[in-house]
């Protein structure tokens, strides 16, 4: 398939970025896909053949101006610098405007305009900047990654308990691969001036069900233990997580208890053309990888 434009992806050396690059590499001609990374000398692995690597540092606008030369479509993967993301995103949006980028896609959060998630505010503010830029845009409002919970499997197996603050709230998560494929398709195929995709898994589960699935697959006793938000946050800090990350996870769980991570629209599966990855499959993948 011949694509008559050049596409760039920021944060391409990260977990989501690499999956997006892989998903797009088979659909774009050599020389038309650009991976923007903070430091090209320190890649976690090589990119596929034909992918051009350019330096694009969110904190250094001068690198962004050079990196976005001749780029037609840009995927801005949200920064992981909690509390500092808005300024970084502003730098990328401004550089895209100066460079004449024709379409900007952004990885936001599910139902960003109404979400009670604490992390949603920086996404809302970034979306406002994108709208004000005058660029054609795609908002990829991603739900929760199942891998966010799968990361806790080793601790759950070690202690027989899966901790959280989500109560019996239902969570419509999907795999990181699902969201990557959605980003790749939207960046290539979207044509409207303003497109918003609310993206989440086809099914949903509670953390009680998530813990039970871990137990089923391993044959080991694992049960969900609900903690108050503050207690969960302090527990996470106690096992070594940075305070901002612990705050994000505990707040997100507490919001999930009230439905903030639930969605039944199936927009993600329609966009990628297949069912989303069941949470049980992600658990199995994590266990096979030693998780």
Put simply, the count of helices is 12
Class inferred from helices and paired strands: alpha/beta
| Rough outline | globular
H/E series, N to C? Answer: EHEEHEHEHEHHEHEHEHHHH
Give an overview of the whole structure.
- This protein is an alpha/beta fold and 291 residues long.
- Helix content is 43%, strand content 15%.
- The chain has twelve helices and nine strands.
- The strands form two sheets. A seven-stranded parallel sheet has the order 3-2-1-4-5-6-8, sandwiched between helices.
Describe the protein's topology:
Layout: E1 7-9, H1 15-25, E2 33-37, E3 51-55, H2 61-67, E4 73-76, H3 85-99, E5 103-109, H4 120-133, E6 136-142, H5 146-150, H6 153-159, E7 161-164, H7 176-189, E8 194-199, H8 207-218, E9 223-226, H9 229-238, H10 243-256, H11 267-272, H12 279-288
Helix pairs in contact: 1-7, 3-4, 8-12, 9-10
Question: Could you give a short description of this structure?
Answer:
This protein has helices at about 15-25, 60-65, 85-100, 120-135, 145-150, 155-160, 175-190, 205-220, 230-240, 245-255, 265-270, 280-290; strands spanning about 5-10, 35, 50-55, 75, 105-110, 135-140, 160-165, 195-200, 225. The chain has about 290 residues and is an alpha/beta fold.
